[in-house]
Amino acid sequence: MALLERTTAPVGEHHAQQFARDGVLVVDDLISRDETARLRELVEPLYDGTVDTGQQRMDLGDFEDEAPAVERITQIMQVHDFVPEVLEGRYAVLALAAARTILGEDMELDMTMLMDKLPGAATPTPWHQDQAYWLPDIPDRRSLSVWLALENVTVESGCMAFVPGSHTEPTRPHTWAGSNGQALTTEVAAGEGVAVPLPEGGATFHHGNMLHSAGGNTTDGRRRALVLNYRSAAMIAWERERGYDHRSENARNEGEPLTRALHPGNKR
After folding, report:
1. d(CA 26, CA 195)
2. Which of 6, 81, 149, 258 is found 20 to 30 A from 250 (Cα to Cα)?
3. How far apart are CA 137 and CA 257, in angstroms?
């Protein structure tokens, strides 16, 4: 599989055709290192527990049987609930502009998320499509996730990988990753995926039906990412009317609403 085409900021009209073809954009220079430093400073109190994020923090790698000394895949949902300043800088401005350029002027922020893989946290994020986590029967499936590297991300530290063009195919069947945990997984053949290392301040923009994964972190450094997700204002309202706001309890409790679009009976 050839390497994905890489591009530079800002994302504009000339990127729409590339996104339609591949389902993902790779932007090496979305924001400066000064802003990534500012974002790391803002979110570190969430990671180190100074700010209590309650149920919005989980170990997404808990499908592995043995409990580790450290979280395998730290995930904190709806970051802006705790640190609204993450939406005040250049990153949020550029991400929203890109979403509207690529998918339409009705795009709005739906969800924010922090991901961290600590040094030696070698658990990979399983192959999946975000649509497999969504509410059933959502009428409009336009969605864009922007994954920002808060430090240099390599194959060894757990960079993202994608299957270019998979966003145009039907969503694949998903199952639970292991007997425990909250992560879904699907089958991807060897050679389908393309690893995408990023420099600090680089970002990927991927479609909601894009097959993607991320490796484990086998290095002695952190691997942090700040994700912003966009969909139409009408569909955000549709979700909220049904009690779904991308907070962790939507995805992991035993009650309503059913949030697994393809497997609504498989509730933890």
Report:
1. 11
2. 149
3. 13
**Could you tell me the two tokens for 170?**
């039907």
Judge contact between 86 and 92, C-beta under 8 A. Answer: yes
Asked whether residue 49 is domain-assigned, the answer is yes
The verdict on residue 259 lying in a domain is no
Bridge partners (DSSP) listed for residue 109: 230
Residue with tokens 């425990």: 180
What is the domain-level CATH number for residue 95? 2.60.120.620
Residue 248 within a domain? yes
Encoded tokens for 203: 């970002």
| Residue 188, in any domain of the structure | yes
What is the pLDDT confidence band of residue 219, given thresholds at 50, 70 and 90?
A: very high
CA 109 from chain centre, in angstroms, equals: 13
> Alpha-carbon distance 192 to 67, whole Å?
31
Query: What DSSP state is assigned to residue 113?
Result: E
pLDDT confidence band for 120 (50 / 70 / 90): confident
Q: How many CB atoms lie within 10 A of CB 179?
A: 7
Q: Which domain holds residue 56?
A: 15-252
Cα 128 to Cα 52, 162, 208, 210, 262, distances in angstroms: 29, 10, 10, 8, 12
Helix, strand and coil content of the chain, in percent to the nearest 5, comes to 25, 25, 50
The pairing of beta strand 194-196 with beta strand 160-162: antiparallel
